[in-house]
């Protein structure tokens, strides 16, 4: 599970990241709202943890930007602001849960698990064109029939389907497809994307290259 942690307290962020890493999460840490938004736009995250007292702007502004960008992964606010109005504002702005500092790591992990379960139930199927992707079962269907894809093609498709119509960075896709390989050539990702693009044509779906940024999946234009 890919976690975005936006927290300006380096010691706290390091502690959370270390604890979550030990239980199987992959954690990317941002110390500012600007860095957090950049990471959110570049990668495919399963869940986010967001502090509100960030040095460059309020975390609620970042939360609103993330939601306005169409990113729907669950977000848990982790803040010292404990007033009822603060919790209401956070949830109304787009947060899925709110945990007040100080907190127990065991409770944080339990809340993340609950949010992930809820997210799997509500967004298990993702659609674009005539393609349906089962995020829980890791399979793709074309007009109800299974689409034959390799494991690497499925990894690419999963990353792109988390952000339909949005650009996913090459690095995020590369990390998903080749997580433990160090001798992969620079063009390996492009080869797999090209093969996947060909297989998706029948679904009315295309994978567009965004120069210098990455790829995004879209419904194919009627003339294309």
Description:
With 224 residues, this protein is of the alpha/beta class. It is 42% helix and 23% strand. It contains 8 helices and 12 strands. The strands form 3 sheets. A 5-stranded parallel β-sheet has the order 2-1-3-4-5, with helices on both faces. A hairpin with a 2-residue loop joins β8 and β9 (145-146). α2 packs parallel to α3 (59-68). The longest helix is centred in the middle third of the chain and has 18 residues, at 105-122. It is elongated and about 55 Å long. It starts with a strand and ends in a 5-residue tail after the last strand.
Index terms:
single chain, 224 residues, alpha/beta, five-stranded parallel sheet, four-stranded antiparallel sheet, 8 helices, 12 strands, 23% strand, elongated
């Amino acid at each position: 599970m890919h976690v975005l942690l936006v927290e300006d307290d380096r010691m706290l962020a390091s502690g959370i990241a270390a604890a979550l890493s030990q239980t199987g999460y992959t954690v990317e840490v941002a110390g500012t709202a600007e860095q957090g938004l950049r990471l959110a736009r570049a990668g495919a995250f399963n869940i986010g943890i967001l502090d509100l007292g960030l040095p460059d702007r309020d975390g609620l502004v970042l939360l609103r930007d993330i939601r306005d960008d169409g990113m729907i992964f669950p977000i848990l606010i982790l803040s010292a602001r404990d007033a009822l109005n603060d919790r209401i504002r956070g949830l109304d702005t787009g947060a899925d849960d709110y945990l007040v500092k100080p907190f127990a790591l065991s409770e944080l992990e339990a809340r993340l698990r609950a949010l992930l379960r809820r997210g799997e139930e509500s967004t298990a199927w993702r659609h674009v064109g005539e393609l349906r992707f089962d995020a829980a079962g890791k399979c793709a269907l074309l007009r109800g029939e299974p689409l034959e894809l390799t494991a690497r093609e499925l990894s690419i498709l999963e990353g792109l389907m988390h952000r339909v119509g949005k650009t996913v960075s090459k690095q995020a896709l590369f990390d998903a497809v080749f997580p433990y390989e160090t001798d992969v050539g620079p063009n390996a990702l492009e080869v797999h994307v090209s093969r996947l693009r060909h297989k998706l044509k029948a679904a009315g779906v295309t994978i567009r290259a965004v120069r210098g940024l990455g790829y995004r999946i879209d419904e194919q234009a009627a003339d294309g």
